[in-house]
Amino acid sequence: MNSTTSTIPKNIIILGAGISGLQTALSLLTSETPSPKPKITIIAKHFPGEKNPNYCSPWAGADWRSHASRNEEDRRLRGWEEITYKRWNEMELHNYPKGILGEGIRKSVYFNTVCVDVDKYLSYLLLRIKTLGGLTIGSEINTNDGLEGVIRSCKGLAKENGIGGEVDIFINCTGLAAGKFVGGDEGEKLFPVRGQVLMLRGETRVCKTLVGDLGEKGDELLYVIPRPGSGRSVVGGCKQANNWDSNPDSQLTGRILQRLKDIGWADDFMDENGHIEVLDTYVGFRPGRRGGARVEVEVEVEVDGEKEGDVIGKRGNAKAKVKKIDGVYILHNYGHASGGYQCSIGCAEEIVRLIAGLELE
């Protein structure tokens, strides 16, 4: 697509204030394109500082550890991760010593990573967005009428809050909530991946992850991530697909602590009596998606002049056309499962590039 130059700032609504929504807003406000700078409004039920299992960004570790394979199907994922890693390394970092190979570990890999205090980082992103002129609206959006209804509701809410001008672009960064309104097969691709983490007293000096199939179902793992400068660390966890239980599992907590001791990683957290103090236990639902994250412009496929929904099973000259609803372009950035942070900047910059390629008037 060829972009056209406009002297009128574009009015962009971002739905969702997790790591994907906040980073998308910041990348749009700090990028050289589009020009002039767009007017950004974030609409969300939850913002940084709030706690809810369905608002999973505050429950994350978070650190950078690649989830991508060398296969061609992971090419985009590798790119998103690489960009985020490079951007994070441009920020101020602290060097920590190498870890020690623990009991039962066959081999280890050492690399410089980035550990994030997610509460502070989310608040930092939101502060930068507001400083750059971004606006926020705290509200729950009705999802009963599909994507069309969500866009109408967002436009109406923006108008009610005194945000003038027509909405040009809508960016869906709602995570699991997208399944309630994106419709059809796209909605069915989403599923929860339950996570449970412990906040421990004591700040480890090394970020560690034990890779393997732990637990009876192979859906448990062990990782230790410091909250830099806080005197605390996050220890987890599990990746339990299709589990909506928001209550902490005390037996899982016990297994996590026992593994921590068995592998030799508990020294940073034990007092003189060998006791580990658990400050809190968190449960959150990662936005899993079959096929990986969805980062793209909404399109409709036509075959011989008919929309995709009318031509199931037919073959012919198929072509994809950028879809607009009520004059609004739609983009998506959701479904990152446990890779939301480490892909955040890469995915946000891809959204910026996609918008630059739209034929904006």
What's this model, at a glance?
The chain has 361 residues and is of the alpha+beta class. The protein has helices at residues 19-30, 75-89, 118-131, 146-160, 184-188, 250-262, 344-356; strands at residues 11-15, 39-44, 135-138, 169-172, 190-201, 208-214, 220-227, 232-238, 240-241, 278-289, 294-297, 299-303, 306-307, 318-322, 324-325, 328-334. The two termini are 13 Å apart.
Chain-wise SSE layout:
Layout: E1 11-15, H1 19-30, E2 39-44, H2 75-89, H3 118-131, E3 135-138, H4 146-160, E4 169-172, H5 184-188, E5 190-201, E6 208-214, E7 220-227, E8 232-238, E9 240-241, H6 250-262, E10 278-289, E11 294-297, E12 299-303, E13 306-307, E14 318-322, E15 324-325, E16 328-334, H7 344-356
Parallel strand pairs: 1-2, 1-4, 2-3, 4-16
Antiparallel strand pairs: 5-8, 5-9, 5-10, 6-7, 7-8, 11-16, 12-13, 12-14, 15-16
Helix pairs in contact: 1-3, 1-7, 2-7
